Amino acid sequence: MIYRARTVLTLDGAPIENGAVGVEAGRVVDVGRDEEVRARRSGPVTDLGEVVLLPGLINAHCHLDFTALHGRIPPQHSFADWILQINGLRRDLSDEDYLASIAAGFVEARRWGTTTIATVESMPALLDRMPAPPLRTWWFAELIDVRPRLPAAEMLDDAFARFRGKEMWPGGFGLSPHAPYTVSPGLMRLAREAAERNGNLLMVHLAESAEEMEMFRDGRGRLFELLQSLGRSMADCGQGKTPLAVMLEREVLDERWTVVHLNELTEEDFTRLERGPRFHIAHCPRSSRYFRHSPFALRRLAGLGFNIALGTDSLASNSSLSLFSEMQTLRDAHPEIAPERILEMATINPARALHQADSLGKIRVGFQADLIALPIENPRGDVVEKVIAWEKPVPWVLLAGAPFPLG
Ligand SMILES: [Zn+2]
Q1: Which of 6, 40, 89, 166 is such that its CA lies 20 to 30 A from the CA of 131?
Q2: How far does residue 63's CA lie from ligand 1's centre (Å)?
């Protein structure tokens, strides 16, 4: 099949006017100007018309479990209060509610042109009760041991047991030790070792809120009190160490990890980051705004060479799973950043974070045929700006070479 489009935005060189993409067996087999591609290949041609054709978007961080909590928690003054609120709402959700929530999350992600998603699964046992996901999905099994029901090793065995038999699912599996305030150093280390042994990726929330900073550095505050009341050992708090310093001391981070948030960083933290390990960073612009976290240090972190990708976080702290809206929020907060860099944060950069830089995030021969088409009229030099500004459901999505109609 050959798809012809007014503009093909490959993210692998300049936009191609009157371009075409050849697709075979789920992969891109040709890309170029329409007449060149047709001269090289035979096969049916679908003319998509006055559209911009680009790679499907990739969500670097979300929690599909909480899609059903959309609009249920108004912004709180305290991050700890938000945790209490969501934990209260979660108590009323059955397994069926979670499964419906995840399914609704896929529909919502597809609606906004997302073809790949990295989601934290708080109840990995649910994986045995669902069909293969409709989008390319990396499932990160969440690990927490503030009040563990199982020993750490059993927790890990259980997660890996849920991954088994699902090797054909599009995407992959990883582990998400939730955060340094909910995961002990021992469990963090075991997770890292198991992931290394089995070739999995890792994801952790870090330096998200001012209360997390207060808890670790000063040994006080609402989050400190909450976790102390739950029985967490608070021995690593109140010694002047920032969340980043505490995490780096655990000596687990490397390029397998996506570190989510990093909103709250001190000057010393930037010095630590200069010489520390290179992990990937997921930034969730609208979730950060909802919580009123400190502004994300995009330019400084990018200047240090970190790969930064965009995520939506969950609908418990966001209004949609649209990465277009995340790009727009980022653009408004950082008007100095080139639009091309912003679009890369929802395509190429999350592909790198998922270790898929050779198969996702660009339109290139050999890459997965995950494509979206946006009916944008007359793009001139501002095609990327217009893509970022897109506000409607995405009418045309191709996933692994197969059309995926709007639900
Ligand atoms: Zn999150």
Answers
A1: 89
A2: 6
CA of 203 to the centre of ligand 1 (A): 9
Share in percent of the chain as helix, strand, coil (round to 5): 35, 20, 40
> Can you tell me whether residue 133 is helix, strand or coil?
coil
171 Ramachandran zone, left/alpha/beta (phi>0; psi -120 to 50): left
- The domain 57-353 is placed in CATH, from the list 1.20.1250.20, 3.20.20.70, 3.40.50.2300, 3.20.20.140, at 3.20.20.140
CATH top-level class of 2-56+361-403: mainly beta
- Between vectors from CA 369 to CA 176 and to CA 54, what angle results, nearest 5°? 90
What protein residues have CB closer than 5 angstroms to ion ligand 1? 313
Q: Give the pair of three-digit tokens for residue 82.
A: 């938000």
Contact indicator for 309, 325 with CB cutoff of 8 Å? no
pLDDT tens digit string along 19-65? 999 999 999 999 999 999 999 999 999 999 999 999 999 999 999 99
